[in-house]
Amino acid sequence: MERKVIQSSALAEVGYKLELGNLEFGTLEVLFPSKALWRYYGVPNATYNALMAAQSLGQYFATNIRANFRAERVHDEGCNFGPVSNPMKTYIPCGVGCRCWCHTIVKSSEEKKSHGDFDSKKAAEIQKIKAQVKVRAEKNRIS
Ligand SMILES: [Zn+2]
Ligand SMILES: [Zn+2]
Predict the structure, then answer these.
(1) 98: CA distance to ligand 1 center in Å?
(2) Could you tell me if 82 and 75 are in contact, meaning their C-beta atoms sit under 8 angstroms apart?
(3) Per-residue pLDDT of the chain (143 residues; tens, 9 = 90+)
(4) Looking only at Cα atoms, what is the longest distance across the chain?
């Protein structure tokens, strides 16, 4: 879905697409400044037009849309993590320019993983030192 860049501190981009064969209701897509992407279903065309014409889009969205429609957090179109393109949700690097919010989450869990590797290396080193101490202690006992 194509989105328009919005001059608002509450919303970054807004897109709207009428449901197939329907001239009155459609799906509203909102990208927040946090990079989270949400879809709102069954939004009347008139509501979308009123949003785009509102003096404060963020305020109109908060009072007339946010809590009034069925909402779902979605992946950006073309994102390999999306439910359509990658139902197994295994990690496949996305094409250049994928701005989906999910990649920041992947990055942080990768960081955790490497941190874990570091900890297990440290644990192995401690085990080695403990074993050396034990060998030395046994030697001392014999002599
Ligand atoms: Zn994604
Ligand atoms: Zn992606």
Answers:
(1) 8
(2) yes
(3) 899 999 899 999 999 999 989 999 999 999 999 889 999 999 999 999 999 999 999 999 999 999 999 999 998 888 888 777 777 777 777 777 788 888 775 555 555 554 555 566 677 777 888 888 888 888 877 66
(4) 94
CB atoms within 10 A of CB 141: 7
* Calpha distance 5→30 (Å, rounded): 10
Q: What is the DSSP letter of 24?
A: S
Supply the DSSP symbol for 73.
E
Ligand 2 mean position, distance from CA 75 (Å) = 7
Amino acid at 119: D
C-alpha of residue 113 to centroid of ligand 2, in Å: 20
Whole-model pTM: value is 0.67
Q: How many residues does the chain have?
A: 143
Q: In this structure, what token pair is assigned to residue 91?
A: 């990690």
